[in-house]
Design brief:
Blueprint lengths: L1 E6 L9 H9 L2 E8 L9 H19 L4 E5 L2 H11 L3 E7 L4 H16 L3 E5 L21 H8 L24 H12 L11 H15 L3 H4 L12 H6 L4 H9 L5 H22 L21 H8 L6 H13 L4 H14 L4 H11 L5 H11 L15 H8 L4 H6 L19 H6 L15 H19 L1
Helix pairs in contact: 2-6, 5-11, 10-11, 11-16, 13-14, 15-16
């Protein structure tokens, strides 16, 4: 039996359900990754990082005496070309998507494979529980996190799966050399400048580092960006360079603590947002709460550009945006702060922010990112109430009290005293000169008055509710 293992966002040779089944049930195996130009993002750190991981994964497979075939272009034509080269191919294995672009692709290709007499073997691998696995007593998907979590935590979690591949089973001949050259060119043309460390080995090291050195402080320290006490596993879960089962199993083995429970609850949020997106397939473009379908967004392009580039005049917002622009990652507490600022203080459509994050984050996951933006904008399920609006200055004072994080990324403010680091515009002219920062010259005045912006946002959101009535 000749089978294809079709890789997507599961770039690993270990703890991979589809791969384990393919290895077990096949006489000959063809490892495949399809590059779809329809999914390309121009000038995107997200895009460049993913393909850096793919290129690294391909090298790892080749190093082990196997080969990863690269398909490129129209998806049906690509697999048709593969079938022409391997007429005996009869089975395809993959880890399925349950939402978004991936689900549409899987549905389309499942029909294609069946039309070509290729048996489909699809598995739920990317989450601990599938999107439709956990339902309330009425048989419906949950809309609120806490009752979902209460049921989720009681369910047995799948264990890691051992995979042993015989390289002799895997087709070594390169079937589409021209596509491999295209991948090389994509990676060589990448604008990825940060220290990006791909691969399963690196992912496992990061997991071990988190458990040994950070997890015991996670509950108390995770909200403080200057403490660097988050797991930093999100980029590897996004590419599938590490399995969610591997992460759960390793953390679960540790002695029970508040920090362990808090971290495992974060894994539940990941499943929850996956379930929400599957149940609301238009969530990327439409608010889940229909009463906020008519918000009169201001959508000031100039203000949006300043927000993107960390020039808002609110140091914590600017530091967060610069962190993402420079590193491709942003601390989770900061994601909430900058999203609240964009949607409430500036009244800019959450979809603009979500799209920018999609472009810039090396750990971009559609379910979690869209869910997070709809939460901050008060338009999603179980979202923050529209009248609870983050004050960026008090958030800054609470979560970066000494300004250590701010000074790291907003270098103009390095010499500003801690007394003024969260609101440097309060310095006198003399103090500004002494700190080498002139507000309105080399660091901007605050774009908006938060108190006034808060009142405006509440009024606009209430007007949207009235329109729906």
């Amino acid at each position: 039996m000749v089978s294809v293992m079709w890789y997507r966002r599961d770039l690993r040779l270990e703890d991979n359900i589809a791969l384990a089944k393919a290895v077990e049930e096949s006489e000959q195996l063809i490892l495949v990754f399809h590059i779809n130009p329809e999914q390309f993002l121009k000038n995107s750190i997200n895009h460049d990082a993913f393909f850096a991981s793919l290129a690294y994964f391909k090298k790892e497979i080749d190093r082990r005496g196997m080969h990863l075939q690269i398909l490129y272009g129209d998806i049906k034509k690509s697999f048709s070309d593969l079938k022409k080269k391997i007429p005996d191919w009869t089975e395809v294995y993959f880890n399925k998507d349950e939402r978004g672009f991936g689900k549409l692709r899987d549905d389309k290709m499942t029909d294609f494979f069946r039309d070509h007499e290729i048996a489909v073997h699809a598995y739920m691998d990317h989450y601990l529980h599938g999107a439709y696995e956990i339902k309330n007593n009425s048989g419906e998907l949950y809309k609120v996190f806490t009752p979902y979590y209460n049921k989720w935590i009681q369910l047995e979690k799948p264990a890691p799966i051992k995979v042993t591949i015989d390289p002799e089973k895997v087709l070594k001949k390169a079937l589409f050399k021209e596509n491999e050259e295209k991948l090389k060119k994509m990676v060589n043309d990448s604008s990825l400048t940060m220290n990006y460390l791909p691969g399963t080995e690196q992912a496992n090291k990061q997991l071990e580092l988190f458990i040994k050195e950070k997890m015991d402080k996670y509950n108390k320290a995770r909200d403080y960006p200057f403490k660097n006490n988050t797991s930093r596993l999100s980029q590897y879960l996004r590419t599938g360079e590490i399995s969610i089962r591997t992460v759960w199993s390793a953390v679960q083995k540790e002695v029970s603590s508040e920090s362990q429970i808090t971290f495992l609850k974060e894994l539940c949020w990941r499943d929850f947002y996956h379930m929400v997106y599957a149940g609301n397939p238009d969530q990327k473009t439409q608010p889940i709460k229909k009463q906020f379908s008519n918000i009169q967004w201001d959508n000031n392009v100039e203000q949006f550009e300043k927000w993107k580039h960390g020039q808002t005049g609110y140091p914590i917002v600017d530091a967060a945006m610069r962190q993402m622009n420079q590193t491709g990652w942003m601390h989770n507490r900061l994601r909430m702060i900058v999203a609240s600022f964009l949607t409430k203080d500036l009244l800019i459509d959450w979809r603009w922010g979500e799209e920018y994050f999609q472009k810039m984050l090396i750990d971009y996951d559609a379910s979690s990112n869209i869910g997070g933006w709809q939460w901050a904008a008060s338009t999603g399920t179980d979202a923050v109430p529209y009248f609870r609006i983050f004050n960026p200055t008090t958030q800054s004072e609470k979560y970066d009290p000494s300004g250590e994080f701010i000074r790291k990324y907003v270098t103009e403010l390095k010499a500003v005293k801690t007394k003024y680091i969260h609101a440097p515009e309060k310095m006198s002219r003399e103090e500004q000169v002494k700190a080498n920062v002139i507000i309105g010259d080399n660091y901007p005045h605050p774009m908006v008055n938060h108190s006034d912006a808060r009142k405006r946002a509440i009024s606009i959101f209430e007007e949207s509710k009235d329109i729906v009535k």
